[in-house]
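Hi team,

Filling in the usual template for the complex we talked about on Friday. All components are listed, including any nucleic acid strands or ligand strings, so the model treats them as one assembly.

SUBMITTER: L.P.
PURPOSE: interface mapping
COMPONENTS: two
RESIDUES: 444
SEQUENCES:
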Amino acid sequence: MSRQPDFSTAPRPHRPQLWDHAALVAGVAALALSGTAAWRAREEARDAGVRLAEVRREVETASGKLRALAGQARVGAPVLPAAEAPPARIVAALASLLPGHARLDGLSIDYERGGVLQLNVVAGDAGAWDLFLDRLGREPHFREVEPGPESRDAEVRSLVRALWVGSAP
Amino acid sequence: MALLGTRVYLGLDASAVTATALADGLGRSRPRGFARVALEPGALAPSPSGANLPGADEVRAAVRRAVSGLGGRRVTLVLPDGLARIALVDRPSGVDPRDFVRYHLAASLPWPASEAIVDVLPAGRGRLVGAAVRRATVAEYEQVAAAAGLEVERVHLAPLLALHGLMRSGARDAVHAVLGDVAMCLVPFHGGSPAALRNRRRDRSPGEADRLLDEASRTSAAAGNGVEPVRLVLSGREAARLRREIGESVAEQALAGPGSWPEAAETAWVGGLLS
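RESULT (copied from the run log):
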């Protein structure tokens, strides 16, 4: 209720009521909760900062490793100038190795990786296929011959990887 | 739930000591307990000056009985109508309202103004109800409560509690008569606010109803209500009897308190607290 006139001979200050006490307790509780929440948030921020620093260090380390590996990759597989391995010459070399019942269906040359070849070969029978692989392995222009999986139904189809070394010793 | 606690009000008047416990909430107060203990005639005689409690021992015993069932020893004392000088004044600007009321009432006080305790009740429309009570008289009532083992927290005036209840409940436009045992207030209300205020002692001899109606008519006319038939709203001591005598088509009753406390209708301030 609103304030009523007071005619006491000795007016007294307002006596705290249950509501006043409840409000005080609620205020103290809210203050404690907000303080706890602020402390937790500060701790979480500190932990997040530590984790961020660790991740940055890992990223820097990984970047260094990546740069080193890229350098090594460039050193291990030098670029092959196209002038040293013209496709016509490679095709001519391969054609000289193919038996009568075998043909070259496709050829890719990766100059960036030092002249890696991928040969799509179709042989009329297993004998022609084996003969081609034998010749390819013996031919000094080619190294690191890796026959792929073979399909030997009526004819043999396979992907062969090899490295063109040209006239290198 | 009593969010703001329970407050015990102890009212004294010539006919009885009344105690009520009200639970203060965020809205209106709710009744928790009520007791009324009758006094022998002459034990308590409300007067603006002089002794009010010739039967102080009987009054003290009645106070103890009244509050015994309500619990607690802290009380708000409610002084009866007939002690104070009461006036409706315009709210002053640039002056403390209490000082203004003290100045306004000083000439009419039957005791030195320096002995007056003055306070005010906002009455709406830029007006105040100011009241002045003699300090020695208040002390007499405080002492009887203290002698009964009670601690008096605040002291209110019964007619101001009733007026506040009427204003808070949006009293209808009529002349409201707030009746105490020995005095009464006649207050014409316009638009929910008092337009005038007369405070006078009662004459309870035969014919009081007719005299009251005549006085209400004069008060209404003086307050600017013209010559329309007066509408009278009665509350407090013997309001029901006077309403029957005046005629229920002319007079109504207000501030009767909760129905569960029929005797509360005799004390308008209880109805004022609960309105």
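MY TAKE: Chain A touches chain B at residues 1-2, 4-9, 11-12, 15, 17-19, 22 (CB under 8 Å). Residues 18-76 of chain A form the longest helix (59 residues).

Thanks, L.
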